[in-house]
Design brief:
By secondary structure, this protein is mainly α. Helices cover 80% and strands 0% of the residues.
Length: 424
Amino acid sequence: MRHPTNTRQISPWSWIPTLYFAEGLPYVVVMTLSVILYKRLGLSNAEIALYTSWLYLPWTIKPLWSPIVDLLRSKRWWIVAMQSLIGAGLAGVAFFIPTDWWIQASLACFWVMAFSSATHDIAADGFYMTALPTEGQSLFVGIRNTFYRLASIFGQGVLVMLAGWLEVHTGNIALAWSLTFYLTTALFIGLTVWHGFVLPRPIGDSHRPGLAVGALVREFGGTFSSFFRKGDLGLILFFLLTYRLGESQLVKIVSPFLLDHPDQGGLGLSTATVGMIYGTVGVVALLIGGIVGGWVVSRQGLKRWMLPMALAINLPDLLYVYLAVALPQDVWVITGCVAIEQLGYGFGFTAYTLFLIHIAAGRHPAAHYAIGTAFMALGMMLPGMPAGWIQEQLGYTWFFIWVCVCTLPGIVAAVWAAKKIETT
């Protein structure tokens, strides 16, 4: 069968929603689902935070190999190849969960998924810009973001609720999670096959045979070094690394806190309930917060909303101090607290995204934005690694108080960043 070379022959509706669902799903599996999986299989909070924080590394260093995606093969090829590896990683986790060496083997599979997913991000975003004209990119940006977030709801909500249901009906936690990952594997293989057939083959999507590796390295080196010649570099890095300092630790402990028995200082919720509260209601609240954040900034500008957004992303962390002290059993109270915290996070994260865009403006905006997102991932990885150990030393109540203290540098950074926006 002859494949089309003109993107007009294939409707973007047939591939953009599924492509960005496939981009979002492995990220949420690696970053969030792995935390709940390891908690249910008996790992300590210190081990969970350390192991899963390391999985941020591929997203931290992905700008280093992004030129390879541009130089070798087409972005379409990279998309299908990386989705195949992600499917293999999901299958590997499912297979190894019931074995005696499940920790090492599942972590290896999550690493495969993490590197493949980070590479897939590069290829998919580049393909989006190649396969669509400028007006099409503007039209579908909301669609791609929506389906990326739906993948978060599916991964954190539906899959966790499914695993919880299987835990109850099989009476075997390991089997329940293994079956959940097998079903996810089947879904992802279906997406890979679909994209193998339906992704267009735009004329501009091809490798660059005329560009020597040495020239590409020099080009990349110049672009990379230009980021570090920016004015106020110290402020920029301080903001990128501290704005989510509290959240980077909180996110690794929330699920274990919700799952742990009250005797251990947790809320003692079932797996399915955590999937509903944190993975569904929480993600929907996050989406609403992001939409509202974008709307208010579009009307009054980022400088006006930088500090309110920094407060919105950080102050609701106090609700977890309340939950750890009161240990409420009313699911609606817990749901309300989680929803408010996630609403504030979605609202406040808008400032972070727009500041990234602001500092990337000028020459090499795409490359500088990618470097900025690498520091964003680093800001989540490094503080997250010791979060579990800190929690075990302090207990949940004092850990959440510590998280609130850690929000202060991000608020200071937001004040400074607002001044920088005012002077540029």
